[in-house]
Design brief:
Helix content is about 60%, strand content about 20%. By secondary structure, it is α+β, with helices and mostly antiparallel strands.
């Protein structure tokens, strides 16, 4: 479990406990510890179901239904989950001696409690969906008003671009290409979250991810994220081929520096970045095509990292002029050392084979001499 995931569930449990306390204040003699525990457990179960942690296959099939049918089925399913959650939680609390009710009373959901739990669950689900639509980092920053006024800060940016998406769309159609993009974006979400990155935007077949500079270079998180994403796609090679006929490949560019960050928009708010760093990162990603290297990093970022992740090495490619920019940039290519080990292993195997054959020839010569 990552830090981000643990924090998320702690916040959900705390919110559920608060709503449990409010229920006691509104409908009973006052908040109780048992009510707070009950709220935390039921709220956690409801959100676990909504996020697909519980019954993920059922949740995926549910989303394939037409919208009217989905809304009805989703509400009925949430009601069932809440009822089961309340029954199980009440039974456990009775077993642990946390309530003075009988087992039947503790395990039987009361109408007022069910309606309240459904209302709270709907509220939490709505907030989480807005959070996911905007992005967790953007959502928090908008709530806190951090970027109401433009702020100058240093960030690391990772631009990921799906290779061959245009060709795929021409061959299979736009709908099929969109399904591929959706699957790729879904697959990379977990490694990005695990390395504490923030998905800032999707532009066509490109994903823009960023970190505050200190967080991104600490333990080389931004570099580790790139190769975690590549391994995630490569490890499911058979599934990708079966589902889409191809294994997705990504071009990646890492660059960073000072940007101006501001909240923009009226009807739809968004955190936007302004400055040459954004343009340079985009141009650096385009340089992947020219150099034939899938992962490039600017010297401005690489020089600030004390070490690279284990198994990753950098190769300096020298000064390069980026399209649309007057200056030059020192560029490095990143790659896994694993490939070199395979080559070395093959060479060792070949040397051993030559030695074996040499020994055999020597043995034959000695036998002929006898």
């Amino acid at each position: 479990m990552t830090i981000g995931t643990a924090t998320f569930w702690i916040v959900i449990a705390a919110a559920g406990a608060c709503f449990g306390a409010v229920f006691g204040f509104l409908f009973k003699e006052g908040p109780t510890v048992a009510g707070m525990i009950f709220g935390a457990c039921v709220g956690g179960v409801a959100i676990a179901y909504e996020r697909g942690v519980l019954f993920p296959s059922y949740s995926r099939r549910l989303r394939l239904l037409p919208t009217p049918a989905y809304l009805v089925a989703a509400e009925l399913s949430l009601l069932l989950v809440v009822l089961v959650g309340m029954t199980v939680t009440g039974s456990l609390m009775w077993t642990l001696g946390l309530t003075d009710k009988t087992l039947l009373q503790a395990a039987t959901p009361q109408p007022a409690s069910v309606l309240y739990a459904l209302a709270v669950s709907a509220l939490l689900v709505s907030v989480l969906r807005v959070r996911e639509l905007l992005g967790s980092g953007t959502f928090a920053n908008i709530l806190l008003g951090r970027y109401h006024r433009p702020v100058s800060e240093e960030r690391v940016f990772l631009f990921l671009d799906l290779v061959g998406s245009t060709t795929y769309a021409e061959k299979h159609g736009d709908l099929a290409a969109q399904e591929l993009l959706k699957a790729v974006f879904s697959a990379i979400a977990e490694p990005v979250r695990r390395h504490r990155g923030q998905v800032d935007d999707y532009i066509g077949d490109q994903v823009i991810i960023s970190w505050p500079l200190v967080r991104g270079i600490e333990q080389a998180r931004c570099v580790a994220c790139v190769f975690a994403v590549r391994r995630t796609l490569g490890n499911d090679r058979d599934w990708w081929i079966t589902r889409f006929g191809v294994v997705p490949e990504l071009r990646a560019a890492l660059h960073g520096g000072s940007v101006v960050t501001a909240e923009v928009g009226v009807d739809r708010h968004k955190i936007a970045y302004f400055g040459d760093v954004m343009n340079a990162t985009s141009r650096l990603e385009g340089l992947c095509r020219t150099t034939g290297r899938p992962v490039l990093i600017s010297d401005a970022v690489l020089a600030r990292m004390p070490v690279l992740p284990d198994g990753i090495e950098a190769e300096e490619l020298g000064l390069h002029s980026l399209r649309g920019r007057s200056g030059t940039m020192v560029v490095h290519s990143l790659a896994e050392k694993r490939k070199l080990k395979i080559i070395c292993g093959a060479k060792e195997h070949s040397d051993a084979e030559d030695q074996r054959k040499g020994a055999g020839l020597g043995h034959a010569a000695r036998a002929g001499g006898l």
